[in-house]
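Thread: quick sanity check before group meeting

JM: Hey all, I'm pulling together slides for Thursday and realized we never actually wrote out the predicted structure for the chain we discussed last week. Dropping the sequence here so it's in one place. If anyone has concerns about the input, flag it before I start.
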Amino acid sequence: MNKKKMIRLTALVGVATATGVVAEANQAHAATTTTTETTNQTTNASVESTQAAVDAAQSAFDTAQTSVDNAQANVTSASNNVTSASAILSSAIANKEVATSENIASATSAVSSQAVVVASASQAVSEQAGVVSAAASVQASAQAEATSASASLSSASANVASATSALSAAEAALTSDQSTAANNLSAAESAASSASAAVSSDQAAVDNAQAAVASAQAIVDAVAEVQSSDVINMSAAYITALKNYLANPSSANAAALQEVAKGADYVKELQQKFKSDASLDVVDPSDPAVQEALSVYAVNLINHLRNQYGLTTAFGASANANVAALDFVKKYYDDKNWNIFGTTGSDGQGHNKNGLDAYAVQLNTSIAEDAGSGLTTWVNGKATMATTTLHNLLYAVYSDIATMLFDDGGTNNWSHAQSIFEDGTILGTDGFNNVYLGVAFDKYGYAHYELYNATEGNQLGNNAYSLDVQTAAQTLLTNAQATLASAKASLQRMTTNLMVAKAAVVAAQDQLAALENSSASDSAAVTAARTQLESAKTSYQTALATYQQKEAALEKANDELANVQASLEAAQATLATAKAKLAELEETVANLTNADQLLAAAQAAYEQAVANLTVATGNLEAAQVDLAKAEAQLTLAEEAVEQAKARAEIATQVDQQLNGSNANDRQSAGQDATSLKTNGRALTATVATASAANPKRGADQGRLPQTGADNQEASAMALVGLGMLGMATGLYGYKKKKLTK
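JM (edit): ok, ran it. Output follows.
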């Protein structure tokens, strides 16, 4: 209900109520009370009556809405049927167009051909079914055999468990003393084994210590042997001639030096002082202890010569210088196959000068190299790296230095002698203020004497050796002897422990033997139980082998059955495809053959669907008209309820005002009503005029005008009516209520 309708209704209700109040204003209070009570009863009855009409209208509206929904569903269904019938009709028309005798004959021929394919596929399925049946029979037999073998295996396993239990019981029957004795024997044997291993280990340590003592003793003996010959003496004439030559290397001075050098029969001295000793042990020239002995020996020889020459600065020897010498010789001679002398002493490659330069850069120092025939000394025969002894090596060092001193003319131009006797420089090269000597032998057996200038930076002078070779050799021997003594003492202790352990083993064996003799029956039971267990295990292994064989056969049968079943399924799938194709072809033949009938049926079905849609559409339109009517009736009924409720509320408020006022109030109200008499008639005339304009009062004719043409009139009437109600009853604040369906 729109706002204009609500305002007009309220105004007219107010006018009607006010007119009634004016008409009764001069009556007695008792009569007034009776009138308002009657009015309340009437308005309440009107509310109930109009609410019942609303409920009936709502029910009619719901029924109409259901009818519309059903009709709409029928229209949708009919429309879908028309669409489907149209598609079928189109298909029938197309089918009719191709339903020629040639196409029918072709389709019939295709059916015949496909029938042959189906028959062939059916035969293949039948044949494969036979294969599957045979494979299933084989699989069933294999399954039965595997089941039987499994049962046998379970039985054999149970027998093993039973025999194991019997053996455990028999072993438990043995006395705890026998078990203890066996444990004691095991422990004693273990202790004896450990003691024997300790003895073997200590014996090896003793053997190693004895070898170390022998090696140290050899060094001591060698040092002692050469102690009296570890110096080379130069005559005053030789020293003078050498100094003259080094000061002025002229041909005359060289000839004079050569003449003096011939007078020193160093070869004869070597043969006298060094005798070949085959009893000495073979040593490795690169062994640190051997290197130490060689470098100390060489430095002592050189320093004694320098002292005779009048020099006060001495060469030194160190482990670091020896390590550097070994590294240099390996990199620039052995690895490069650089043979410094060759096979005859005159066909060699000479010094590796590029290697010397590179190694000097690597160590950031000055390096000079002297080389000698070493183990290939022709004077005393040739030794090999595989047979050399410390005696041979010391002899080589002595021989090389003596040769450099007295036989260094010719192409060498006394350069080796010069390197020995210069101070602060070597062969004219400065930077040799702190010379340390390193000795190394290359893989050809030649000796290399590397002269390094040691500094704090290159640390070549670190780990320096004592030049007292006799004391160093003796200390080495003393330490080796102490190690040997300790090893022997340990070996003695371990030998004693082994003897005690072996005695304990014998005692434990005797104890066990005694106990075994006293419990022969228990031992026999254990033996029998063990025999039974072994037999059960053998049977179990046989059953296991059979079971595994049958399981393998079953697995093979299962695989074969699966394969033939797969082939059967493939044949069945082929048959199903062929049948489906045949049915499709047969349907095509039927469609072509019955094209006229199918077209007629499709046309009839389509026309019927169209007719059904027309009927459903008409039904929907009728239902929608009924729904619109029901909705209008419901709206009118709801608005009537609101009007009735408004009248009832106003009547109730007037009654409350009248019943609560005193005599003075009633007199004042009467006067106020009389003063408004003229306006009341005007309002009544307006109501009468409105009623005269609408003589019929049907469901909609009883309602007041709803157009907006007289909005001002309605508003004026509403204001007057409400004003009169305020003066007559003191009622204010009437609130319009909202209608809901």
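AS: nice. Residues 5 and 495 are 133 Å apart (CA to CA). The radius of gyration is 69 Å.
JM: adding both to the slides.
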